[in-house]
Amino acid sequence: MEVEAAKLVGAGLAAIGAGMAAIGVGNVFGSFLESALRNPGAADGQQGRLFIGFAAAELLGLLAFVVAMILIFVA
Amino acid sequence: MAADQAKVDPMKQFAIEAIGGTQGWEIAGFNIAFTNSAMWMLITTVVLFVFVLGGMKRELVPGRWQMMVETFTGFIDNMLEANIGKEGRKYVPYVFSLFMFILIANLIGLLPLGLVGIHPFTFTSHFTVTGVLAIISFSIVLIVGFWKHGLHFFSLFVPHGTPLPMVPVIAPIEFISFMVRPFSLALRLFVAMMAGHVLLKVLSSFVIDGTNAGAGFGALVGLPSFLLMIGISALEILVAGIQAYVFALLTSLYINDAEHLH
C-alpha cells in the first residue's frame, strides 16, 4: 500500500475513536438522567461530577480527532 | 495533501496573518507583529471589560445589566465554593476572568460577521493560546500547593490508605496523571473548538459544491447540508458554553487538590 493511502486509511480508522467517545458521552448523560429521574432532589448537586465525566469521556474522542488531523496534515 | 482538492479549504480559517505587515516588529530574533489572533484577543478583552464595567454600578436594586453580571459571578462563586469550600472564594477573580474570556472568545468566533466582510478568528482553536491558559492554571496549582504545604505537597501522589507495597506502583501513575493535566486541559478546548469550525466549513463546501453541480444536486445534497449546518451551529453555541465551563470546573478541581491535598 502506498504511504499516502495508508495515512488516509489510518485517519479514517481514527474516526472509530470518535464514535466510541460518542458511546461514552451518551452513557454519561444517559446514566445521569436515569438516576436524576429516580432522585430529582439529588440531581442538582451532582452536575459538577456530570461534567467531569463528560469531559473525561469527550477528551478521548477529541484525541482520536487529533490523530486523524496529524495523519492528514502533519505526518 | 488531501484537502487541496476541496474548493473550500477548511484550514484557511485558522491561518494567522499579521495585520499591517511584519516589518519592524523584530525583538531579539522574534517577530511580535500584531496578528489577527492578537486583535481578536484584544476585542474579547474589551468586550469582557465593558460587560463587567456595566454591572459595577452597585445599585441596591440591580438593573438588567447588573443582574446579568451578577448571575455569572454568582455562578463561578457557587462552583468554587462547592468544589473548594470557603478557601475557594479568593480564586473567584481568576476563574471568573478565565471562564468569561474563553466563553466570549468562543462565542465571538461563531458570530456570522463574514456576511459583512469581517472574518472572526477563534483564537481558542489554537493550541498556543489554550496552552498558555492551561499553563497559567497549572502554575497557580503548583504555586499554591508548594506555598501552603511545602514539600508535603508531594503526598498528592500517594492517596490516603495506599498499602505500602503498592506505593511504588501508584506514585508514578499519580505523577503522570498530574503532569498530563495541563495538556489535557489545553487539548480539550483547542480540539473541541477546531473540530466544530472544521465541521462547519466542510459542510459549507458540500453546500457550495453541491449547488454548483446543478439544481438537482443542490436540492439533494446542498439543502440537507445547509439544514445540518444550522443544527451544528446551534450545537457549537452549546459546545462553546460547555467547554468554557469545563475549563473553569477542572481548574477549580485542580486548585482544590492544591488547597486540600487528597
TrEMBL record, chain A:
<dbReference type="InterPro" id="IPR002379">
    <property type="entry name" value="ATPase_proteolipid_c-like_dom"/>
</dbReference>
<keyword id="KW-1003">Cell membrane</keyword>
<dbReference type="Pfam" id="PF00137">
    <property type="entry name" value="ATP-synt_C"/>
</dbReference>
<dbReference type="GO" id="GO:0033177">
    <property type="term" value="C:proton-transporting two-sector ATPase complex, proton-transporting domain"/>
</dbReference>
<keyword id="KW-0813">Transport</keyword>
<dbReference type="InterPro" id="IPR000454">
    <property type="entry name" value="ATP_synth_F0_csu"/>
</dbReference>
<keyword id="KW-0375">Hydrogen ion transport</keyword>
<keyword id="KW-0812">Transmembrane</keyword>
<keyword id="KW-0066">ATP synthesis</keyword>
<feature type="transmembrane region" description="Helical">
    <location>
        <begin position="6"/>
        <end position="29"/>
    </location>
</feature>
<keyword id="KW-0472">Membrane</keyword>
<comment type="function">
    <text>F(1)F(0) ATP synthase produces ATP from ADP in the presence of a proton or sodium gradient. F-type ATPases consist of two structural domains, F(1) containing the extramembraneous catalytic core and F(0) containing the membrane proton channel, linked together by a central stalk and a peripheral stalk. During catalysis, ATP synthesis in the catalytic domain of F(1) is coupled via a rotary mechanism of the central stalk subunits to proton translocation.</text>
</comment>
<feature type="site" description="Reversibly protonated during proton transport">
    <location>
        <position position="58"/>
    </location>
</feature>
<comment type="similarity">
    <text>Belongs to the ATPase C chain family.</text>
</comment>
<dbReference type="InterPro" id="IPR038662">
    <property type="entry name" value="ATP_synth_F0_csu_sf"/>
</dbReference>
<dbReference type="GO" id="GO:0008289">
    <property type="term" value="F:lipid binding"/>
</dbReference>
<dbReference type="GO" id="GO:0046933">
    <property type="term" value="F:proton-transporting ATP synthase activity, rotational mechanism"/>
</dbReference>
<dbReference type="GO" id="GO:0045259">
    <property type="term" value="C:proton-transporting ATP synthase complex"/>
</dbReference>
<protein>
    <recommendedName>
        <fullName>ATP synthase subunit c</fullName>
    </recommendedName>
</protein>
<dbReference type="InterPro" id="IPR035921">
    <property type="entry name" value="F/V-ATP_Csub_sf"/>
</dbReference>
<dbReference type="GO" id="GO:0005886">
    <property type="term" value="C:plasma membrane"/>
</dbReference>
<feature type="domain" description="V-ATPase proteolipid subunit C-like">
    <location>
        <begin position="9"/>
        <end position="71"/>
    </location>
</feature>
<comment type="function">
    <text>Key component of the F(0) channel; it plays a direct role in translocation across the membrane. A homomeric c-ring of between 10-14 subunits forms the central stalk rotor element with the F(1) delta and epsilon subunits.</text>
</comment>
<feature type="transmembrane region" description="Helical">
    <location>
        <begin position="50"/>
        <end position="74"/>
    </location>
</feature>
<keyword id="KW-0138">CF(0)</keyword>
<keyword id="KW-0446">Lipid-binding</keyword>
<keyword id="KW-0406">Ion transport</keyword>
<keyword id="KW-1133">Transmembrane helix</keyword>
